[in-house]
Amino acid sequence: MIRTSILQICDATRCFDERDRVYALASMEKPRFTVNYDRTVAEVYIAFAAYEIGRGAFKPLLACAASRRPCAPDFPTWVPDWRTPV
Q: CB of 13 within 8 A of CB of 24?
């Protein structure tokens, strides 16, 4: 399970494509989170949050989402915007 703490550590990294914040780390997981560059950043972050919740990371994900306010208007409140540093 990708820990939200790992994504928080990586929030200061520069990414040419903001989806790579999730895709780079998620590619190391089994089962793998599906990489799809046809999705928007919001769609990727929402799908990844749902994926992590399904794997039992509900509380850490919500804590991470709460620490990253304000988030983009197209993000639900339960989805961390990993583009926003903590």
A: no
